[in-house]
Protein: Class I SAM-dependent methyltransferase
Amino acid sequence: MTNLVAHWDRRAESYDATPGNSLSPEQAAAWGALLAEVYPVHTGRLLDIGCGTGTYSLLIAELGFDVHGVDTSERMVERARAKALERGAGPGVSFSTLPAQDISGQYDAVFSRNVLWTVADPGRLAETVREHTTESAVWIAVETMWDGHPRGDFREAGKDLPGFGGWHPNVLRDVFTRHGFARTTWSSISNRPDLATQDRDVHVLFRVSR
Ligand SMILES: C[S@@+](CC[C@H](N)C(=O)[O-])C[C@H]1O[C@@H](n2cnc3c(N)ncnc32)[C@H](O)[C@@H]1O
Structure:
């Protein structure tokens, strides 16, 4: 765990150069339109789990939600806060350095992107989310599946991650179902230049609800 936090801390500075984190204005608009379509309502409190540098937290706040991003990496959270300030985001966007399993309060909606492959037990995370969300909450989880092997410091930090390389979408759907989210569906968002997913990886969007 500590190794993983150190890994994401190290990655924070250059993280915005990774695919999907340096969105063009057109790509940001396409993501905004997609998320506006998949969330049934756009108000209330939304939790962004493993928010990284806040790229998607800020985008989602523009839909109308009050967004709280949490991340175990302090460096990621520092960058997210700096980005929010730079963009003039109001009090409706906030960030905490916090493991998702330690969240408190109730949320009306949840977002996560490329986080479930980084946790040892996504079922446990789903249980936490269930405990801290309203009955009608929708969790949009975006995940990637790729043909990769742990490299660099991931060789050590990632060796105990059962989801390295990404979970098969059906496996993850079953995990959600078993842990309190019976109405879970997924669809591919691969190969969409408008969403910056035009690489060789498989990109999936889950819509998770009770
Ligand atoms: C691959 S990055 C994704 C960041 C961002 N969501 C994005 O789409 O670019 C995974 C992030 O999840 C964070 N993370 C991993 N496990 C976490 C946990 N249990 N609670 C909160 N954050 C976590 C990491 O620190 C890292 O910033």
Summary: The chain is about 35% helix and 25% strand. The longest helix spans residues 25-38. The first strand starts at residue 45 and ends at 49.
